[in-house]
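call fold(seq) -> tokens
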Amino acid sequence: MGFDDLAAEQVRVNGADLWVRRGGSGPPCLLLHGYPETGETWRHVVPALLPHRTVYVPDHRGWGRSATPGGGPYTARGMLEDAVALIEKLSLGPLDLVGHDWGAGVVLGIIVSRPELVRRAVNLNMGFRRFVKSAPLHFYFFALPFLPELAFRFANDPCVRFLFRWWGARQEAFPEEWLRFYAEAHGQPVSRKATIAYYRSIRPLRMRRRGRGGAAADRMKRVPVPYRVIYGEADRVSPLQNARWMMEDLEGVDLVTLPGIGHFPQEEAPEETARLIVEFLGGSGLTYSINTAPRHNGKKSQ
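ret:
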């Protein structure tokens, strides 16, 4: 069984219909994607988890198959609230969490605000309190008026491709069909609107003063659940220095770094990333297969 064999349905939470894939057997595990991707970013990891976990793979509100009209508002807090509502609606807690980029921020938010929902957690390329301010330049770009809207309206495809070239270290990990898939998913008007609104909601200039995790995260000194962070050492947008600062500021983190890997370990080093996730969550007898062909716009065959 592979990623394309997962069942899929829309689950309504907080007034939005989230597209959620599910399958496998065993305790629940929720995998949360980041930007500029969709739930398909986990296509290499899911097959390794299926013998050990029942996986749930949503597209965030406004992205992928969850890009439904009228689905806003799109805020960082709202993304966290959607994930918590999904866990509670499907009665999944306590469960395992796996996140990347925006999804990793949600995982950390759940750990901070609702640790009773979490059994174990794995994040990819996620720091904690301090981050290199000059690296995530897209934070500041999205905060500009008008320009992001114009860029994505008239040059969506080259913009998305540029992000993968900038953030990824192993360009061969992103074949043409997958770059096209992500660009088409991002090019939906709702997705473009959601992207800009999400980034504007985090207020990067305020983050420079307060730190990334907000007041509650800033007070946390030790992770209250078993927590592994897998980090690509060649990440340009969330540099390894973020991980070094995390290890200084937060106790209880199991950090594993991957040399030569950029911002997308699940795509650039899928076998090793899948092994590290399954190992930490408690699986054994790792099986692995690669899903090479994308489904158009995240849609499963009906």
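Confidence is low (pLDDT under 50) at residues 208-213, 285-293, 295-302.
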